[in-house]
Amino acid sequence: MSKGIYVATIEPNSGKSVVVLGLMRMLLGKTAKVGYFRPIIDDLEVGEMDNHIRTVLSHFEIDIEYKNTYAFTRNEVLDLYNKGKSGEVIDEIIKKYKYLEERFDIVLLEGTDFSHDNSSIELDLNILISKNLGLPVIIVTQGDRKCFKEIVEGVQLAHDTFKQDVDVLSIMTNKVNPDDVDKLKELLSARITDGTDITVIPKIVSLASPTVKEITDLLDGTVLFGKDMLNNLTENFSVGAMQLRNYLIHLKENSLVITPGDRADIILGALQANISKNYPKISGIILTGGLIPEEPILKLIEGLSSIVPIISVKGGTYFVTNYIGKIRSKIYAENTEKIATSIATFEKHVDTDKLSERLITFESLSFTPRMFQYNLLQRALKNKKHIVLPEGYDERVLRAAARLISAQVVELTLIGEKETIAERIETLDIPLNIEDVNIVSPKESPYFEDYANTLYELRKHKDVNLQMAKDMMEDVSYFGTMMIYKGHADGMVSGAIHTTQHTLRPALQFIKTKPGVNIVSSIFFMCLEDRVSVFGDCAINPNPNAEELAEIAISSAQTTVNFGIEPKVAMLSYSSGASGKGADVEKVREATQIVKRLAPDIKIEGPIQYDAAVDMRIGKSKLPDSEVAGRASVLIFPDLNTGNNTYKAVQRETGALAIGPVLQGLNKPVNDLSRGCTADDIYSTVIITAIQAQEL
């Protein structure tokens, strides 16, 4: 079952609250612990509470602190976007949602309201949020005062826009003329044919009508009488400016009377009409101009047996009347009648059993880079490890170190002279407190002699004498690797300025490979726009034979599992299936069979071409019975030339973040960097190294 569901719209006044309230009741009928989250709320005055949140928490008695029910206000999001920090918006939303996900069986998320003129980024944001959280979406549209063609085209646009990136469970079109419900559902079902559930909800007058309380609040009015009847619905309104005998004929059921505060005749006449069997009921009276009836009139009103709300407002009659005409009804916590009507409307017109079943059986195939990186950070935080960075003078390393220390995700050691590193931090204006990291210079370390003696003992059979061992231990890669060997650090990340050979040589000499592992190999986590793929081996082994290729595939699958991705392994070649001939394709075919024999639980396909591995349409046409074709998450390249060029091409052409190379097979984690790496690459690789260290 999905851990969450996202309710979104594409327009204002869609009636989204009806769907949210109905869904909340439905979910509470299926499970005891239901959470609620609004990623982005409208801007509020200090001390104010979002009305949607207050209504849901209050009515359903949801136990969540208000600060945990939303991530940003609208202006906060716009400010971050204008500063080029849009990624921070998604990261914070993921963080807040995951907190609720851990506490509740399912979380109901409500998207933005489109209540402002400048809502150009709202649609993209709602899609981006649901996509990064891997949640199915219910889209709410509205059909009020629209023709069939306009409604159908609007629904089609909403469906197609969301469907490109997320799973759409249902489209609910609200506020439809009751006489048009069946016909509209028929038209929509004929247009949307991919299995998306279509629901049409008629317009309910009582839900569309504002209460006297809403009008009073928006006009900043003062309640003179009838506080206990502020929830009266206002279905009509009219201005009492003519003589009473002429005005009475204009009264309608549940109408609001608008009149200057000195028109005692209209006020008293309207009140008398309200209790008369010969005239319709009124919802309330708005007194304009800031005028209050004189004392004898107030005393007369007080003595009446039934008094509707009488509200005094400061604006003139013309302004107040126009303003009231623009008010759109909202549902708030105190109006239990509207809440009950909303839930009853939802249950009457929505097939809740069918919707519940679809939600229970929903399985998201989406795993975005943002979610992947969030999961990595959370895993690393659970068991903090000590990582050594030998290239302590490099600007990228220092900037990554500042982020890592700020996030408190690892303990760090930088190798280098403390004074020099301090000067670099100050010169480059890097927000890193020198006292928050361990800094060590190999020759000045109290462990230097011990490290050199240990290296001598380990390598003397290779004709390494003690002086040679001391010379080697002055090298930052040897010193950092020995820290790991001796248990003074848990892992190492290097390669920003050193070659792969320079980084790996010490690890291969005395860290060595795990039992049963014959070769060290590598993978890249390729963070594409909508998924994370694993590429191997793109950094270490130039031309592996079939046995080595099989071992790379098995190691890559195991690493993939360790990082929360289901491995579906594609053994890449220039042909798919049984059609290809030649030594290169035969090597891949043999390697695939070895994997099937040694690790039968791994889902694997090979040989297979890249397009057939990642594109569902092509995969099904070439290998229709394959569990992997079209949905591969692990792509194993036949040689280093192919793998290295492909990962770099994908990275440059798509803008994908390539995390790695992540090394596999060593007894303790040592990871190499590309010399073209960024501070972000180093940050991610350190976190991955820390997680690898947790597995030991």
TrEMBL record:
Keyword Transferase: yes
Enzyme class: transferase
Protein's cellular compartments: Cytoplasm
Keywords from the UniProt entry: Acyltransferase, Cytoplasm, Transferase
Catalytic activity: acetyl-CoA + phosphate = acetyl phosphate + CoA
Entry's Gene Ontology molecular function annotations: phosphate acetyltransferase activity
Domain of life per record: Bacteria
Domain Phosphate acetyl/butaryl transferase positions: 371-690
Domain (DRTGG) ranges: 214-324
EC annotation from Swiss-Prot or TrEMBL: 2.3.1.8
Pathway info: Metabolic intermediate biosynthesis; acetyl-CoA biosynthesis; acetyl-CoA from acetate: step 2/2
Subunit description: Homohexamer.
Family per record: In the N-terminal section; belongs to the CobB/CobQ family. In the C-terminal section; belongs to the phosphate acetyltransferase and butyryltransferase family.
Domain notes: The N-terminal region seems to be important for proper quaternary structure. The C-terminal region contains the substrate-binding site.
Name of the featured protein: Phosphate acetyltransferase
Source species of the chain: Mariniflexile ostreae
Gene designation: pta
